[in-house]
Amino acid sequence: MNEKTQNKKERQRWGTRFGIIMAVAGSAVGLGNFLRFPVQAAQNGGGAFMIPYFVSLVLLGIPLMWIEWTAGRYGGGYEHSTAPGIFHTLWEKNRFIKYFGVIGIFGPLIIFIYYTYIESWTLGYSVFALIGKYKDCADQKSMQDFLHGFQGLQKNQYFDTIAWAYVFFLITFILNLAVIYKGINKGIETFCKYAMPVLFLCGFLVAIRVLFLGAPDPQRPAWNSLNGLGFLWNPDFSALKSAKVWLAAAGQIFFTLSVGIGVILTYASYLSRGDDVALSGLTAAATNEFAEVILGGSIVITSAFVFFGPLATQEIARSGAFNLGFVTMPLIFQKLPLGALFAASWFIMLFLAGITSSISLAQPAVAFLEDEFDIDRKHAVIYLGIISFVLCQPAIFLLGHGVVNELDFWGGTFCLVLFATIETIIFGWVFGIENAWEEMHKGADIHIPKIYKFIIKYITPLFLLGILGFWFYQEGIPVILMKNVPSSDKIYIFAVRLLLISVFIALAILVKIAWAKRRGRKK
Question: Cα–Cα distance between 473 and 210 in angstroms, integer?
Answer without folding.
Answer: 42
